[in-house]
Amino acid sequence: MPKPSRLKNQKGFALVLTLLMISMMVVVTLQFNRSVWSGLYGSSNLKENTRLRLVARSGFECAVMVLSEDKEQNDVDTLREPWAQSRELSLQSTALFEKGYFMVEISDLCSKIQINRLLDSKGDWRPAQRDLFQRFLLSKAFGLDSDAVSNLMDFIKDWLDPDEDITRFGAESGYYQGLDPPYACGNSPLGSLDRLALIRGISGELLYGTSEKKGIMPYLSVHGDGKININTAGPVVLQALSTEMDEDMVQDMIAYREDTENDLADPKWYQKVRGMDHIVFDTGLLTTQSDYFEIQSTGAMGKMEQQLNISVFREPGKPIQILQWKADPEDTN
């Protein structure tokens, strides 16, 4: 009797061992299968992402070509020119690719207030730029009172200037090091507009806006020579050119420059606008030429997109120079 019992136990053990081995083989097979499909899916995504980047890059190259040709043809930049009609570029792109298309938008950075030009090389205010920026911040669009604007000007100056000397009610590294997490004051020009969020007094609401109120970011640039192109500037910036400007004057200026019969080569053309013959803008702030632009090119395939944001500088007879390149890290659906 003992021998059959041992034999039975051995058979039972063998059965359990066999089942365990089969289970392990199933698990390994499933894992391998999952890895193979994951690799195939990843390769497919990589291929699509590469294709999207190339489509977006094509849009950028088309925009560069348009800007270069425009510079060769004339020295006056207005919203009537091909570079400002980027929708046409986008519509034509559907015929260039078997799959996908690009959407391009070219923005004139000289139509904006160039924040890195507020101070001179010593870190002192440039008076004309300071006054322009102050009038801009006092715009009704942002809802700031004079005291808030005055303090904000001090905070921004201290962030941009090269020293650690506190300007009136400003803030230097001593303030920022006390935050959680701590960080140092910039004490240098801004590399990107997002850095404004680090400056005391600049909230996300003020920078980016809300559904009810505009933010300041769309009207600013870190690139430019400090001059405002009045042929391309928007209403908020135009009104900031003088304390005498009102909304009706701004709309009359916009209507005047939209009329193809009007010559916009002379920066003083605004004095020909009805009711504005007595208005005098600081000539040091004005231009009708633009050489700093932002190109936004989006490659699209179905629901997938890849976006490039590139700031460029152009000058006669030279290739367009890339100042800043920013690409979306991932597809957006």
Question: What does this molecule look like?
Answer:
With 333 residues, the chain is an alpha/beta fold. It has two domains: 55-117 and 219-333, no CATH class; 143-215, EpsJ-like (Ribonucleotide Reductase Protein R1, domain 1). Helix content is 39%, strand content 13%. It contains eight helices and eight strands. The protein has helices at 2-73, 86-92, 127-137, 146-160, 173-176, 204-208, 235-239, 247-258; strands spanning 101-108, 113-114, 220-221, 228-229, 286-287, 292-301, 304-313, 321-327. The strands form three sheets. The protein has a four-stranded antiparallel sheet with strand order 1-6-7-8. The chain has a two-stranded parallel ribbon with strand order 2-3. It has a two-stranded parallel sheet with strand order 4-5. It is globular. The relative contact order is 0.15. The mean pLDDT is 88.
How many β-strands, per DSSP?
8
Helix tally?
Answer: 8
Query: Average pLDDT value?
Result: 88
Shape: globular
Radius of gyration: 30 Å
The largest pleated sheet is described as: 4 strands, antiparallel
Strand content is 5-15%
Helix content: 25-40%
The unreliable regions are none
Record the strand order, biggest sheet.
1-6-7-8
> What class, by secondary structure content?
alpha/beta
Q: Kindly, what is the distance between the CA atoms of the first and last residues, rounded to a whole number of angstroms? A: 73 Å
Order of helices and strands: HHEEHHHHEEHHEEEE
Domain count: 2
